Amino acid sequence: MSNSNTIRAIVVDPSVPERLVIRKFERPSSLPNEAIVQVASVSLNRGEVRRSQSAEAGWRPGWDFAGTIQTAARDGSGFPVGTRVVGFLRQGAWAEQVAVPTHAIASLPDAVDFKSAATLPVAGLTALLSLERGGILLDRAVLITGASGGVGYFACQLAAQAGAIVTAQVRRPELVEFVKTAKAHQVIVGEQFDRYAPYDLVLDSVGGKVLPSVLEQLASDGICIIFGATAGADITFNASQFYGKGGLNLYGFILFHELKKQPASVGLARLVKLVANGSLVPHIDLEASWTEIADVARQLLDRRFAGKSVLHLSN
Ligand SMILES: NC(=O)c1ccc[n+]([C@@H]2O[C@H](COP(=O)([O-])OP(=O)(O)OC[C@H]3O[C@@H](n4cnc5c(N)ncnc54)[C@H](OP(=O)(O)O)[C@@H]3O)[C@@H](O)[C@H]2O)c1
Fold first, then answer.
1. Tens digits of residue pLDDT in 199-211
2. Short-list 106, 86, 98, CA closest to 34
3. Which residues does a 6 A CB cutoff place in the pocket of ligand 1?
4. How far is the CA of 123 from the centre of ligand 1 (A)?
5. How many other CB atoms are there within 10 angstroms of residue 143's CB atom?
6. Angle at 261 between CA 260 and CA 266, to 5 degrees
7. Residue 100: alpha-carbon gap to chain centroid
8. pLDDT per residue over 109-147, tens digit each?
9. What angle do CA 185, 189, 195 make, to 5 degrees?
10. Which strand (E) or helix (H) includes residue 214?
11. Is the model's pTM score more than 0.85?
């Protein structure tokens, strides 16, 4: 840490490579329902890295963090000083210390290390809560596009764990074996979605040409959850085919909205339990010091790794 009145945090600066750099800031102050957490590890998500590429100077990115409670919330909620936690912030989590509402953190058992925990907030909660939109998944056919990504890799494991028959879609053949380690039962490379159709539930984050293709392969009364559009947001699909099938649903998922219905602490506690008992395994392809933020952000934008990337704040 820098000195007693300042902390360091990652901030957008348009004049540096990848627009991300570590700078000093005032130590955070907390509201009565907020704890101060000393951050040990953070993870990167596509959304916040992409936003950093156009955000105004001074914007502080960061959604996912894991660390130790340094100051407990004054209203008595949450966990005592010294508790290891994972948490979610709407921005600014890539910092040595953060002030976080206690409804957005969950405690960590010894079996869950900081780096695994740091992968969970956005990617894990998106996978968990979007799958829950599909109801009971036992013996249901579930298709997950972009399965080699941070969210997709968790979604495959969680759907399989819930009893679904999981089809994972990847765009590169070299990632087939990788997504099988996420318990996908079958894998589609490219866009041959008819191979294992029809699907009761589709989780799509690719968009582009993929979304209209998967809509054609939904079973009657099936539901497609859209939570991303990595390959393009403007799409055209056949509306009469869509309504003609009967009972199809299209659901726009945004985590910030879902967390108004249920605080992040609830889903995080469930995910942590699954990691602790070995039934959910984060895949961290890239670990680095947070001083390498610019390089790691570039690698993420270029999709040079699969699964998650984690930065450590120990130096
Ligand atoms: N709505 C929400 O609340 C919410 C929450 C979390 C994430 N998201 C969004 O959901 C998407 C996935 O998030 P993530 O964290 O899993 O991202 P990620 O780790 O970067 O993964 C992206 C996935 O999409 C695939 N992909 C990338 N470009 C593609 C293309 N042109 N055609 C087909 N597949 C492509 C990648 O395949 P390769 O491995 O082959 O590159 C990878 O499987 C992102 O767009 C993200 O912004 C939204």
1. 999 999 999 999 9
2. 98
3. 45-47, 122-123, 126, 146, 148-152, 170-172, 175, 205-206, 208, 227-228, 230-231, 253-255, 303, 306
4. 10
5. 29
6. 100
7. 18
8. 999 999 999 999 999 999 999 999 999 999 999 999 999
9. 65
10. helix 210-216
11. yes
Residue appearing with tokens 């191979």: 195
Q: Residue 203: enclosing H or E segment and its boundaries?
A: strand 199-204
Lookup: tokens for 113: 């290390």
Specify the residue for token string 């002030």: 99
Residues 150-196 have pLDDT tens digits of 999 999 999 999 999 999 999 999 999 999 999 999 999 999 999 99
Closest CA to 210 of 177, 227, 232, 178: 232
> What are 174's strand-pairing partners?
none
The pLDDT, as a whole number, for residue 307 is: 87
> Which domains, ranges and CATH numbers included, belong to the chain?
6-123+262-312 (3.90.180.10), 134-252 (3.40.50.720)
Residue nearest to atom 4 of ligand 1 (CA): 227
